[in-house]
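Job type: complex structure
Entries:
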Amino acid sequence: MSVQERKERERADRERLIVATARELAEQQGWDAVTTRRLAERIEYSQPVLYSHFRGKREIIGAVALEGAAEMAVELRAAALAADGPRAQAAALARAYLDVATRNPAVYDAMFQLDGGLTFAHEDTPAPLKDAFAALLDNLGEAAGEGVHPGLFTEVFWASLHGLATLTRAGRLPPAEADRRTELLVDRLAVV
Amino acid sequence: MSVQERKERERADRERLIVATARELAEQQGWDAVTTRRLAERIEYSQPVLYSHFRGKREIIGAVALEGAAEMAVELRAAALAADGPRAQAAALARAYLDVATRNPAVYDAMFQLDGGLTFAHEDTPAPLKDAFAALLDNLGEAAGEGVHPGLFTEVFWASLHGLATLTRAGRLPPAEADRRTELLVDRLAVV
DNA sequence: CTCGATTGTCTAGCGGTGCTAGGATCGAAT
DNA sequence: ATTCGATCCTAGCACCGCTAGACAATCGAG
């Protein structure tokens, strides 16, 4: 049995290596540079090996996205925990969210811009995605205000942050005043 | 002179044909289906002809984006004009914006998701882009509120709408409650 | 210990992409 | 009528995601 276990372990290791390498390459040179050939070369295996782990490139992107979502959930919860009161928590969440997006642009793209073959807003949405959303939802209930559905408010909050993140990073908004925009947004959205 | 003029006219016609065909194909089958080969076949010329009008595919996307921006500006101004008071205007702008994005998803992608080689938030930003932004800015001054820079407010307003538009269309947000989200957003952002 | 079966990996290749070099063709001006 | 320049197309490059089939290594049964 031990032989088989070792093989499975090695296989799992290699799968992690693929995801980590794809992520690294994407952060270094952008997702366009993440081709199956380059990726195969970096992990020192041939291309077909990738397809024994993933259905295709899309699934590799999806794996990176899930990893990123899990990390984002952790960071969001930590940020909320360190803040006092609903408004401060909302501000902390916003800063943490945009910080994650700025620090890991390629991972952020994998999550929300590229097609990783993931389903959203659905019952069979992968756990890490649900959890990242829950990290927002769990800390925005009061900021939503009376009579406003927390889920709906969280969706709006999230979408607004997403808009800021993508437009800023794509050079559509001047980066200099990013903080002031975030401040204004939170100031208006959070009623408490 | 007349011969040369005719040629120039035909050339301009063909350029418009290229852009219109690219847009049509993108709306019908998505931008992935807009390959230089397919595009060339549809306009009944060979591939290299495309490159005598545009530097490459990116520039064709950019041309579609500019066309879309000009149309959006018109629709936004019309919507604002039909509404009474700052708050109603803000709501009308939001609805019009999201409506344009929903009705012309491929054009919207050309403007804000894909790389069309356009510069934003800069002095040499193409006029249609500036004008579309101005259509928002010109009608959001009062909704921004006292002491808030109208430009900054418009950026936040725009980014939030962009977030809603992209996440909804990508299946990241349940489409059913799109209107309620828009309502909530405008309700919070516009202070008047 | 040997030998067939299974598993794992690689080489080679398919049809597609964006883009371009170089030759053919056609029309205008002499 | 003939040159000559503009215009356009054929053919091809390097690269893409993906896969079939050959090959080697490993395992289990006799």
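Summary: The domain at 1-53 of chain A is CATH 1.10.10 (Arc Repressor Mutant, subunit A). The radius of gyration of chain A is 19 Å.
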